[in-house]
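User: I've been trying to design a sequence by hand for this structure and keep getting stuck. Would you show me what you'd pick, starting by listing the structure so we're on the same page?

Assistant: Good idea, let's start from the same input. This is the structure you sent:
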């Protein structure tokens, strides 16, 4: 059994549902209990473990440090510290942020994925849309995202699917890191 620790950043435009997703993935709160949202001030770190992930035929337990980062640009001066030692990036956007999402996630991708030279497999885009999660083409993403996994998220009815998609993403990050270390 291998044991790993990963630092994963979750960032995207304000009001895209990052904290809700982070709380759900870390099992900090039941989805039915969440109605009131507050903007994250800077960053909030939630820690949890994923057990028995199979990577290249071997079982892994993974300690996740999920850095739930504010989408407010007034905290941009903190970005270098947030990016230090990052293993993966989850970009989050939603129907609330659709007008600016394309430009915003491109900027965040360049800063948090391209500049530190992470692989596209170390990034995933969660499109948080309760009404029509399959309607991702409205994001108008640049060709930069052709190699980035894009996952439709429906927090009201698709929580189990989100946990599976998150686990698959973590396996992808571990496979990429294992390749780099060989």
């Amino acid at each position: 059994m291998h044991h790993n620790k990963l630092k994963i950043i979750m960032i995207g435009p304000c009001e895209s549902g990052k904290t809700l997703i982070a709380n759900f993935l870390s099992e900090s709160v039941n989805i039915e209990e969440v109605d009131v949202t507050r903007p994250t001030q800077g960053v909030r770190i939630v820690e949890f473990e994923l057990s028995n992930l199979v990577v290249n035929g071997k079982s892994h337990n993974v300690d996740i440090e999920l850095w739930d980062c504010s989408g407010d640009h007034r905290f941009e001066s903190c970005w270098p510290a947030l990016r230090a030692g990052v293993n993966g990036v989850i970009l989050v956007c939603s129907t609330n942020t659709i007008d600016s999402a394309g430009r915003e996630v491109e900027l965040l991708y360049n800063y948090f994925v391209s500049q530190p030279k992470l692989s596209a497999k170390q990034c995933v885009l969660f499109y948080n849309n309760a009404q029509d999660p399959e309607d991702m083409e409205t994001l108008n993403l640049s060709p930069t995202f052709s190699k980035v996994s894009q996952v439709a998220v429906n927090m009201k009815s698709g929580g189990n699917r989100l946990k599976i998609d998150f686990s698959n993403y973590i396996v992808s990050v571990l496979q990429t890191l294992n390749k780099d270390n060989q």
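That's my pick for every position. To get oriented when you compare it with your attempt: The longest strand covers residues 43-55. The first helix runs from residue 18 to 25.
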